[in-house]
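Students often ask what a 'structure token' actually looks like in practice. Rather than answer in the abstract, let us consider HTH-type transcriptional regulator/antitoxin HigA, a protein of 125 residues. Its sequence is given first.
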Amino acid sequence: MNDLKPIRNDDDYEDALLLLKQLWGAKDGSPEGDKLDILATLIDAYEAGRYPIDLPDPIDAILFRMEQQGLARKDLEPILGSRGRVAEILNRKRALSLDMIRRLHEHLDIPLDILIQPIRGRKAA
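Now compare that with the structural description of the same chain:
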């Protein structure tokens, strides 16, 4: 394992990917398998820092969950309020309140870190 080192730049990253290909398929628990596990962790950490993935927009997340669960706008009324309020939120004309965020998290199981983000495309009040 003496050839493993931190991945600090794109050249190190390319070298790590080449080594990963060489080690791919190594048996779990073997020295090569252990090296593969460590190398995969190093690559994952580098990629997470270099190529972060943005969280989805709160409204997109709500719409996605509605589609997954076969929900209609009317089904959001107990969570968000009146029919007009639901429309304002889904049309990006009104921000989510803290209470709405809590209820959406509780009832639709949407992660809080997604719901607390600013809504994209919404003009500041």
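One point worth highlighting: The first helix runs from residue 10 to 23. Ask yourself how you might have guessed this from the sequence alone, and why that guess would often be unreliable.
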